[in-house]
Amino acid sequence: MEVTPNHTQTVSGWAAMDESGKIVPFVFKRRENGVDDVTIKVKYCGMCHTDLHFIHNDWGITMYPVVPGHEITGVVTKHLCQSPATSLPEVPQHALHKLINVWTTLVMEVTPNHTQTVSGWAAMDESGKIVPFVFKRRENGVDDVTIKVKYCGMCHTDLHFIHNDWGITMYPVVPGHEITGVVTKVGTNVAGFKVGDRVGVGCIAASCLDCEHCRRSEENYCDKVALTYNGIFWDGSITYGGYSGMLVAHKRFVVRIPDTLPLDAAAPLLCAGITVYSPMKQHGMLQADAAGRRLGVVGLGGLGHVAVKFGKAFGLHVTVISTSPAKEREARENLKADNFVVSTDQKQMQAMTRSLDYIIDTVAATHSLGPILELLKVNGKLVLVGAPEKPVELPSFPLIFGKRTVSGSMTGGMKETQEMMDICGEHNITCDIEIVSTDRINDALARLARNDVRYRFVINVGGDSKL
């Protein structure tokens, strides 16, 4: 057909204009997304010998201009409710793809119950600049809790999504998964919360609620988990996080904040806190009979400083292991660590050989685990919660000759998160924070990228002086 009136989407591509075979930039129109269609943001396209044949009109059937390419991968950006689609398999080296669930769940174009207008702050592209952003949230459902956001912590994960470091960001992205606030509405099926309650929401917005992991309250390991932002919710909508004035959350994924904890300093516990608490509990570090045992904490940042606090609260002898000698005073005087070791000092490290029962490694920079493993006693346990971009070096001999165990852990389930929050209330454990006003978010992100914070930024979303 000569006329295609629904071809209104302008697309930039590359085409051959004639039999010379030269490929040049080419702007053309594609059709609007129909009821049976899927719109895809193309990420990669393979080059096939068939492309050459069509480009040069070797078979005499080319219709110029021709835009080649039939080995196409990308990310779904739009579809209507009737549309089927084939999902890509999980890419092994990108486990986060499965976590985000972008490629295996489609984005619905229509979410008719999203009628609540919300003001927030979003990144619109990979430049990473956060700007004011007005969007829609769903109405409060029968199982939902509506929360007026008071504070939201800023996590390094926010930086990765803002800049699309992992190639899976769906812009505009509203970051934030360390959220505290006050309940303003509850659904008819909600029994555990009431208007006025102080609550928090962490990394998870949804899960299947029925798999073996969900039944054990390990929702963070559910294959269908949806993150609090840049995830896909049950209704097909993209989730927006806590850099916003209001949040609607399913009751399963809301926790109570004890009255003894300030909402600002409690916010990072919903990520940093549970990330270290979960493996410390899982591996017996917080049991009553563990008191007096020796814990090493590698890295003194957002995660590490909370691990030190948990260790001290449960009677462990805590050694901080850091590359920075300048952090010793902070570790000993403010966090009450019992010992401090500079990991680049061979004499100090050798003196600590086979002295620790447990080590929790919070460092996200690439480093060798060999020297760290040597610090463990026989049967000692090393838990990794930091996520370096490149694979860590893991020598086998320290494992074999020391009968040592290495494991990993990712945040925690909801039952565990509530338990952690209650324990923090009992022991007065909070994160050391720096409050950020909403007009200084970009400045704080720049400092966060330089690790210029002690130890967590928290956005004063509600504009309150203190809660």
Describe it for me?
The structure is a single chain. It contains 13 helices and 21 strands. The protein is α/β, with parallel strands linked by helices and 467 residues long. It has 3 domains: 9-86, Medium-chain alcohol dehydrogenases, catalytic domain (Quinone Oxidoreductase, Chain A, domain 1, Alpha-Beta Complex); 116-271 and 434-459, Quinone Oxidoreductase, Chain A, domain 1 (Alpha-Beta Complex); 274-408, Rossmann fold. Strands 7, 8, 9, 12, 13, 20 and 21 form a 7-stranded mixed sheet that branches. Helix 6 packs across helix 7. The chain is globular. Mean pLDDT is 91; it is low at 81-95 and 100-110. Homodimer. Residues 123-459 form the Enoyl reductase (ER) domain.
